[in-house]
Amino acid sequence: METKIVSKNFDIPNAHTIEVALKNTRYESIHNLIFLKPQTVIDMIKASGLRGKGGGGAPSGAKWQLASDYIGEKYLVVNGDESEPGTFKDRQIIAKDPHLLIEGIIVTCFAIGAKNAYVYVRGEYEEFSNILQLAIDEAYAKNFLGNGAIIPIDITIHRGAGAYICGEKSALLESLEGNRGHPRLKPKKPEPEFYFGNPTLVNNVETIASVPFIVLHGAEAYRAYGTKDSAGTLLFAISGHVNSAGVYEVPFGTSMIEYIEKLGGGIKNGKKLKAVIPGGASTPILPAHLVKEAKLDYESLKALGSSLGTGGMIVMDEDTSMVKALKNLLRFYHHESCGQCTPCREGTSWVDKTMDKFINKSATHEDLQILKGSSKSMNGQTICVFAPAVSGVIDGFLKHFEDEFLECIV
Amino acid sequence: MKIMIDETQIECKEGELLIDVMLNNNISIPHFCYHQDLGADGNCRMCMVEIKGEKRPQVACDTLVKENLEVFTKSKNINNVKRSILELELLSHPVDCPICDQAGECKLQDYYMDYGLYESHLTTPKTHKGKHIDLGSHVMLDQERCVLCTRCIRFTSNITKTHELGIIGRGDNAKVGIAPNKPLSNPYAMNVVELCPVGALTSKDFRFKQRVWFLDSAKSICHGCSRGCNIFIDYNETKYTTEKIHRFRSRRNNEINQSFLCDYGRLSYKELNEKYEGKISDVQDLKKLLKVEKKVALVSPSLSLEQLKSVQNFTQKHKIALFSLPYLDENFGDDWLKTNERSANFKGVQELFINTLQKEFEEAFKNAELIINFDHQLLKNKPLVQFTSTQNVNQENLVFAIANFAHESGTLINCDEIRQRFEASKYKSQVPRLVELLEQLS
């Protein structure tokens, strides 16, 4: 069931060192580049159907094309600010196979014509950031990076300071520029991101790590996995009330319940499944009966009223209080809202405080209306998708588990 | 090109922001963070409009107009959106209007009356933040009243580039503040008070002095230097017996000061509240003195063109040598609004060919039998005291009180040769205007 494309070297001991990595196909795709034009690589990515693996799922090839076509000095920024609750895949790549990421960066920089790449690593990931730095140093020593390399590029690690919102690409760039991590206004027409005014491509760690396989084996080989619209594989993570929480790579389109039972090892203590948050905390929850229908791809989960997000599943057993679960999530969003737009700044605080009344079983029908009303105010009226995601989370809980909330009303 | 706003056709230019088009055409559009001289930031989400063809409401401050754009600002749906955002803005607001200086000119109040009018739904505790924080020289901050529009921050980072203000904290805990021991004390600091759409930033000088609804405004020009910044003089409405000017506010003029003023100019209103309270001489006494031979007059370069002209006519008629000297102060000017020439109309003096040569003035002054000073600072603050041992001494100085520029309307020419009118307040001056006095003399 597991399909190891990105995670091919995860189980090989010491794969994070360059000696072991080189014995296991790392940096091989770079030799292919000698015979390829940058545009050919972009076309391969387009043909492969690779989609952004950080949660948005935007087609990567189109993004690369935008950055490549824009005139100016280009930059690649790799988004490793993995902060979505329930998501812990990027750090596996960085910890277990950092040379795969470096290889992906070299290929991507070649394709879009960038000379500098930044890896924005989540602030709390000090350990992983150190591993990546050692790998980068090794790559410099072996002339895969720096002036002596075939494709001379420089990679710089930047560690975040612990803000969830800096995983949003424009807030990440603001943070990288040394400003407060506030998302930027979205452009009205397609254009690349900008780092100090220069055209920039921002991609997730896993997206970049998927690139070497495509260049080495071709777009069709990648397309062979997954579904028509969700090509390839994803490092799905599973946590919560399961026996073997972890990260397992499977092709898109795999059955969710099968994944939970076979790879996740089933529900702990033989309990029944109650619900799953399918792709990191910010995707709407699915109750057990929908989990049984769900497939792990973008279309299936969208049809069920949720989304694939980052693919980090949070599994909840029958004893889970949905009121407490929602409170837990809303406390997180209250803490992490950047405070730029009014609906999010005030809305996340209001719903979090209102949840206290449900927890204390002192809520009223009006409080339920406040949850619903604030959720509406937060949807579609802000600069970034933080507040709409919170809105979706609240709506999901209320849609499927409203009776538990009604029980808390005096 | 043309766009439709609420089924009315509006002329506009390609590339303009929708919110600018609406503001320029006096179409009401609620907004906190957008400011015509600070640009768009898009954080308050108040300026939501419906646009034909767009699924979701859009912010007018981030929408460029294009041919045949159809905008709706009054539908029930969009009013609900505005109400919900306003409700969120006001959620943790202390609603202390009775003791807030912004009351009466507060955007939160205005928009509540336009779009709010709901009962509070809040059943949970408000978020509390800092009160009466002294930011520096002239400004006080109340973080609870703040809507975090960041106008003040953008002013200090983009306009003055002094970077004193920033946001501290995240989410509903975000607040405007200064770094420890880095007070907001640049020479333009008080602009943030005026930029603040709510009562978060208040002027130490103005707070608790007067309710704004008791104030009337005159469109005037600051006389603090030769820049000619456009101002409103805010004074007690005429129905209240005490004539008092309470503040200067900037009046938007894109060519000169945009919406800004320097603190010096802003506080220079205080001089206008000072009245000459000494003895006022008889015009007839002056008439007698005019018979002497050698007469010199010095006129202030801050007088309006009309006043200067009338002085010039008077001096020519009575064969008085007329001079004017600039108010130069090398330490006053900067690279923005403040100029070293601290008179309001020196260009006007030059236009009328009034003699401005220091040497010739000094020569004439030495030999003069009669010296007339038309409000020039050089002679004003130097009382002429005569210690005399003989009877052969003139009588004491003659002093005539004249109205200050708050009571005058006239024309000034600023340092960039821009000619502008200023208007008088509605108060009738208790002392005569200079022009009236000179008419009496002739």
Overview features:
heterodimer, A: 410 residues, alpha/beta, Rossmann fold, Ubiquitin-like (UB roll), de novo design (two linked rop proteins), 5-stranded mixed sheet, 12 strands, 15% strand, globular, B: alpha+beta, 13 helices, elongated
Tell me briefly what this model is.
The complex is a heterodimer of chains A (410) and B (442). Chain A has 410 residues and is an alpha/beta fold.
Description:
- The complex is a heterodimer of chains A (410) and B (442).
- With 410 residues, chain A is α/β, with parallel strands linked by helices.
- Chain A folds into 3 domains: 206 residues, 3-Layer(aba) Sandwich (Rossmann fold); 85 residues, Ubiquitin-like (UB roll) (Roll); 85 residues, NADH-ubiquinone oxidoreductase 51kDa subunit, iron-sulphur binding domain (de novo design (two linked rop proteins)).
- In chain A, the strands form 3 sheets. Chain A has a 5-stranded mixed beta sheet, with helices on both faces.
- In chain A, strand 9 and strand 10 form a beta hairpin.
- In chain A, helix 15 runs parallel beside helix 17.
- The longest helix of chain A has 21 residues.
- Chain A is globular and about 70 Å long.
- The relative contact order of chain A is 0.13.
- Chain B is of the alpha+beta class and 442 residues long.
- Among the domains of chain B are: 88 residues, Ubiquitin-like (UB roll) (Roll), CATH 3.10.20; 152 residues, no CATH class.
- Chain B is 23% helix and 17% strand.
- Chain B starts with a strand and ends with a helix.
- The mean pLDDT of chain B is 92.
- Classes of the chains: A alpha/beta (410), B alpha+beta (442).
